[in-house]
Design brief:
The protein is α/β, with parallel strands linked by helices. The protein has helices at about 15-30, 50-70, 85-95, 120-125, 155-170, 190-215, 230-240, 265-275, 300-310, 315-325, 330-345, 350-380; strands at about 5-10, 35-40, 75, 80-85, 100-105, 130-135, 145-150, 175-180, 225-230, 245-250, 275-280. The protein is about 50% helix and about 15% strand. The radius of gyration is 26 Å and the shape is flat.
């Protein structure tokens, strides 16, 4: 079972490359992913000897990184060298290789702003339909706390779905933030009227937030919600600093506070100033479940079901537990696990049937042991 099958690792050989390789390795191990190493070279080199030298150098470095990852037990595809504009080639290669995600460094910002975001990385985010994970310089990517801002749109729903699964896999705390945009119009007759309007907007927003969250099954996930009123970008950045966030996950299109997320001021401010690594999602999920359908070993099948349950794929976990029962029809924990999951998804009648089956098997096993002891006594 895989939930993050393939990662396009865009290597730029910058000073932070070693750290980025470590993050790629960690991700691949956590999610059992395949790494696709890529480096983009300029296509306007005229001198053939210089071009050949660059090609060889880039390929050797990519191969060395790939071999190091393979030595750690990670599956790595053949390194790719592309030519042209870096962000265009990275985005096109992500689609061509059917990658689940693009992994890049934050790059260098020549303006030397407080937090760096290079031009190439920003344009990848703007142009890619694939999720993009941006690793900040020297970030070891120890994910203990995740922030997911939502504005109730479909992209933010996608972001939260993915954030929940990622939080479960990392064992991280998830914080879900929603910001009620404050009205600042000067046509209000007094500050009192303006404050009253914003207070009412905030109360309505909180109700809508609760309705939005009701769509999700958080279960035993360690999570909390944050409700704020004000400027969306400022509140996102403030929440990251206040709560020591390790990873920001956000949808890149929506409405209200996040409605300009492709090239607009809110997103530009957040991704340029955010002090932690971040994952952006536009129209595709970073998490895509790939089930193995030919598992014949009971222990492997049961373990796959347990992992699906931990990741929050409850319906899929039920089917995998059922598949394990096809191999071992007397396994009581599988029946109990299915019963518990049916309760969680709101199907108590089915839960009762599987719980009854578990009890019947336990009684059958108990009577078999009693009969065996009785035979032993009679034999003596």
């Amino acid at each position: 079972m895989k939930i993050l099958d393939k990662i396009l690792f865009a290597e730029d050989f910058a000073s932070t490359s070693e750290n980025l390789e470590s993050v790629a390795l960690s991700l691949a191990k956590t999610f059992k992913s395949t790494i696709v190493p890529l480096h983009v070279l300029p296509d306007d080199i005229v001198n053939s000897k210089v071009k050949a030298l660059l090609d060889d150098t880039a390929l050797n470095r990519l191969n060395a990184a790939a071999e190091a990852m393979k030595a750690e037990g990670v599956n790595v595809e053949s390194p790719l060298i592309k030519y042209g504009v870096a962000h265009d080639q990275i985005v096109m290669t992500a689609s061509a290789t059917n990658a689940n995600m693009i992994l890049v460094g934050s790059g260098e910002n020549k303006a030397k702003e407080k937090f760096k975001l290079g031009t190439t990385t920003e344009r990848i985010i703007q142009n890619s339909e694939k999720p993009v994970l941006v690793i900040k310089e020297d970030d070891a990517f120890n994910v203990n706390t995740i922030l997911c801002p939502v504005d109730f749109s479909d992209p933010s729903k996608r972001a939260l779905n993915n954030a929940m699964i990622i939080a479960r896999r990392f064992g991280a705390q998830l914080m879900v933030l929603s910001v009620s945009e404050e009205q600042t119009s000067s046509w209000f007759s007094s500050k009192e009227d303006l404050d009253k309007e914003n207070a009412e907007r905030f109360e309505n927003h909180k109700q809508e937030f609760d309705q939005f969250l009701a769509q999700f099954r958080f279960g035993d996930l360690n999570w909390s919600k944050i409700e704020k009123s004000g400027n969306a970008a400022q509140e996102i950045l403030k929440a990251i600093t206040t709560n020591t966030i390790d990873l920001l996950i956000m949808g890149t299109a929506g409405r209200t506070g996040l409605n300009r997320l492709v090239v607009g001021s809110v997103t530009e401010k957040v991704i340029r100033e955010v002090p932690c690594s971040f994952l952006t999602l536009k129209s595709q999920d970073v998490i895509s479940l790939h089930l193995e359908t030919d598992i014949r070993d009971f222990e492997t099948s049961f373990a796959a079901a347990e992992q699906l349950e931990k990741d929050g794929f409850l319906e899929e976990a039920i089917e995998q537990y059922k598949a394990s029962l096809g191999i071992n029809t007397m396994h009581v924990p599988a029946y109990n696990a299915i019963a518990k999951l049916f309760d969680e998804i709101g199907e108590p009648e089915k839960a009762a049937l599987y719980r009854k089956s578990a009890n019947e098997i336990k009684e059958r096993i108990w009577y078999s042991k009693v009969e065996e002891e009785a035979r032993k006594l009679r034999g003596s």
